[in-house]
Amino acid sequence: MAAGKIQYQMLKENDSVLLSIMDYLFQKNIQSVLVEGGAATLQLFIDVGLWDEARVITSNTRIVQEGLKAPVLKKFDAVRTENIYSDDIRYYINKQSNN
Question: Phi and psi dihedrals of 50, rounded to 5?
Fold first, then answer.
């Protein structure tokens, strides 16, 4: 894929979206992907273990009364936490993934 170009890949309606995406990336020899989706998309990757590292950023000053729930990293503890300005950043590593 050339820099600055976008490629689209059609998926069949009955395909598993995640498996189709992973297969396509494998065929293109793409080994690293940043998933910056919505909560539902991120949760799909988390639930099937298709992640190596996650960073959860929480603001200490901006409080949202209503909104979408963030994805949940069950059974995982942060390996590192840091504070930048008014944000807390927690780093998670999926030790169960096949790095």
Answer: -90, 60
